[in-house]
Amino acid sequence: MVSTPVDTMPLAPDTAPPNDPDRLRGLFLLRPGLAYLNHGSFGACPRPVFAAYQAWQAELEREPVLFLSRRYESLLAEARESLATYLGASADDLVYATNITLALNVVAQSLDLAPGDEILSTDLEYGAMNTMWQCLCDRAGARYVRQPIPLPVESAEQVVEAIWAGRTPRTRALFISHITSGTAMIMPVEALVRRAREEGLVTIVDGAHAVGQVPVDLEALGADYYAGNCHKWMMSPKGAGFLHARRDLQGCLRPLVLSGGYGDLPAGRSRFLAQQEWQGTRDPAAFLTVPEAIRFAAEHRWDEVRTRCHALLKEARARLTEMTGLAPLTPDSPEWYAQMARLPLPPCDGAALKARLYDEFDVEVPAGGGPEGGGVRISVQGYNTPADIDRLLEGLRVLLPQVRERQPA
Fold first, then answer.
1. Sign of the CA dihedral running 219, 253, 203, 206
2. What residues contact 269, with CB distance under 8 A and at least 6 apart?
3. CA 232, CA 69: separation in Å to the nearest integer?
């Protein structure tokens, strides 16, 4: 484990249970009074974790040459070991990346797509990833196949078959989210990865919302490539993501940045680690703070926190469904959603609704349209309380009649 720098800010003593939501709220830097129900977008970092991050930055600035030239590699190795243990993986099979977009670009731009090749995916993927795949496919004369997923979903088998209906002899790879961004739906990734591997397809999983929200065991999953963000549900500082690659495929990956790690390798150093980790001078503090984020979650009994958050979200889902009369996108089960859920809304001006919820009710939550229709995506994290949900629902009760779109007669 990585040792926390000695000047990390200590926590004030507190007699409340370590996972009490009111106590946890005080351990985050979020503005007081804000009902923050949008953890899924960019996360939120606890005070002690952020203090460790700043301490690493200060240590770097006190002796930059010592830090970057003589300690960088060993410090990253320790931080990788901590993350790998958390993810059920080997530390030699993953590297830190600034974010998941960069990590997935490493994979996508290493595939060497040819004219007529196809990348199989869904119509529920994150917009930036759609842009990445579409650009690369256009450049190569390949096709990005976005299979529609019927909503609401009824079963995992239905989702798997909907995706597999797009499989052709030209399909090179399957790209799938572990938890979708727009719908917040937990996908049946185990079944999809297993089927893809049986048919010889490269499997690429976007785990941006999964890591820290649901258990992730990378060795058991067996995907060829899995990327994630640590700054979302793991609560690390911004700028910490990772890429995991099966060892037999690591040689297929090319770095996006050609730097010192591309040349001759020191004895015992893998080319995968050398090429992907060293990209010139950069601040590694966010990577080095990931072990502190893992410790924070363990010390505050985060398995219990996640269970409480799911129960609070389940209640919010039931109350909003009763208010709108609109069926949720998934069955009511932890198999389909964890701490984040998108719930349908009547046709309305989503941008106006989001802005007015913030301006008039001090609620931060994404609302708007998408392939799944109009809705509101609620994230519930350890610092959220029933009062946050009450305020959101009151805001929706007041504002929905005012922002509803008039339907043609």
1. positive
2. none
3. 30
In CATH terms, is domain 302-403 a member of 3.50.50.60? no
CA distances from 375 to 111, 129, 183 (A): 35, 21, 9
DSSP state of 27: T
CA dihedral 189, 193, 199, 204 (to 10 degrees): 100
The structural domains of the chain, with segments of one domain joined by +, span 68-295, 302-403
The CATH class of 68-295 is: alpha beta
- Spatial distance between the Cα atoms of 255 and 279, rounded to a whole number of angstroms: 9
Asked whether the beta carbons of 327 and 321 are under 8 A apart, the reply is yes
Q: How far apart are CA 19 and CA 31, in angstroms?
A: 20
Each residue of 73-127: pLDDT tens digit? 999 999 999 999 999 999 999 999 999 999 999 999 999 999 999 999 999 999 9
pTM of the model: 0.92
Query: CA–CA separation, 44 vs 114, rounded Å?
Result: 41
Pairing of the two strands 340-344 and 375-379: antiparallel
Distance CA 201, CA 170 (A): 10
- Tell me how long the chain is: 409
- Compute the 3-state secondary structure of the chain and give helix, strand, coil in percent, each to the nearest 5: 45, 15, 40
- Contact (CB, 8 A) for 195 and 164: yes
C-alpha 20/C-alpha 401 separation (Å) is 36
